[in-house]
Amino acid sequence: MQNVEQTALTESADPPESDEIAESVRNAGISGAGGAGFPSYVKWEALDDVQYLMVNHQESEPNFYGDKWLLQNRAEKLAPFLEVLSERFVDTIVIGAKAKDRNVWMTEFEATTNATTYGPDELPIDVERESGIVIAYTDDKFQYGMEQVLLSTAAGTTVGGDNVPTDHGWIVHNTESLYNVSRALVDDDPVTHKLVHVGLDVPQHRFLLAPIGTPASTLLEAAGTSLEEASDKVVLEGGPGWCFEIDDDLDEFSVTKATNGLLLATPETVEANTRGEDRVDLLGVDDWDERRHETEPSTIRPDRVRIPLITNPAYEGLVQPSAPIVLKGESVSVGERIADPAADGISIAQHASIDGTVTDVTETEIVIERE
After folding, report:
1. Could you write out the three-class secondary structure of the chain?
2. How far is residue 297 CA from its own chain's centroid?
3. How do residues 214-246 score in pLDDT, each as one tens digit?
4. Residue whose C-alpha is closest to residue 208's, from 312, 292, 74, 301
5. Per DSSP, what are the bridge partners of residue 39?
């Protein structure tokens, strides 16, 4: 949808159809950035049947700042986009944020949007009586980062059983995912980078803007360590409260569109803090607030990326791998499409995240090396 800016954001133009919006999100290669990695366009296919948008801005993981930084520093882009959505496509947009983050992280966005605000004691709000942009400030509870809990707490909507939020009139995105949607619909920009935190048993916590496909070695080097030095540690993907041990060899790991954190911990720490379904909860093993950490991202430039054709392998079978459209030896540029959505089933496009040469194309990934 090359002319989205003339349609969705121009008062005199007719808004695009929901299937056009969903197709643009699909072609931009957007998937859930909060850790699940499910293709986001599926939610937008239900746009005609929803009335509300929930922005999950909880970011409950300690020392994680991706969503907070985006809403504060990209308010001039996100605010107009949300205003258009509320005027043309949904009745109400609710930003579910933590009250403790309000003074430090939310003042710029509040001023830009002139949003209606509610405190923890005023929740849940009555969304049927609201319109436009609303900020629902919650108490500081880790569980509020789960979309079903946040919907219940902030808006009184209960999602249970096999239902999903769209069955109840809601599209739910975390802030980074929604920011990617705004870039796709306004600027026709695809997803090429991911905000990633590297922490715990590393010399320096890092908050990084990493090209999709960045290898673990590059992330660890940015945090002051190496693959060899990490060999006696367990590497986990996710945040301190909700992470999982990486099954593959560390030298095979690369950043996906769902990677928000890479943590190192001792085997003893992981064993003592493993919960059901192999989830590791490290919230109690450290005084996270006292640990030195970065709150603004730095961009890294890996020499090589391995871009997966399915963002989350757990969805294999439900989500179809993207279909490569480049060959080994071809030169590509950042943002250039290198794989189309599969002809059948749920699937998204993939794009080059660095300038370079394609050095391998397999059934699972496309490898690009910087020239």
Report:
1. CCCHHHHCCCCCCCCCCHHHHHHHHHHCCCECCCCCCCECHHHHCCHHHCCEEEEECCCCCCCCCHHHHHHHHCHHHHHHHHHHHHHHCCCEEEEEEEHHHHHHHHHHHHHHHCCEEECHHHCCCCHHHCCEEEEEEECCCHHHHCHHHHHHHHHCCCCCCCCCHHHHCEEEEEHHHHHHHHHHHHHCCCCCEEEEEEEECCCCCEEEEEECCCEHHHHHHHCCCCCCCCCCCEEEEEECCEEEECCCCHHHCECCCCCCEEEEECHHHHHHCECHHHCECCCCCCCHHHCCCCCCCEECCCCEEEEECCCCHHHECCECCCEECCCCCCEECCCCEEEECCCCCECCCEECCCCEEEEEECCCEEEEECC
2. 15
3. 999 999 999 999 999 999 999 999 999 999 999
4. 301
5. 31
Q: Walk me through the domains of the chain, giving residue ranges and CATH numbers.
A: 4-187 (3.40.50.11540), 193-299 (3.10.20), 304-369 (2.40.50)
Q: 321-325, long-range: CB within 8 Å, 24+ apart, which pairs? A: 321/347, 321/363, 321/364, 322/29, 322/347, 322/348, 322/349, 322/350, 323/347, 324/361, 324/366
- The rounded distance, in Å, linking the Cα atoms of 272 and 330 is 48
pTM: 0.94
Q: Which of 170-184, 198-212, 263-277, 280-294 has the lowest mean pLDDT?
A: 280-294
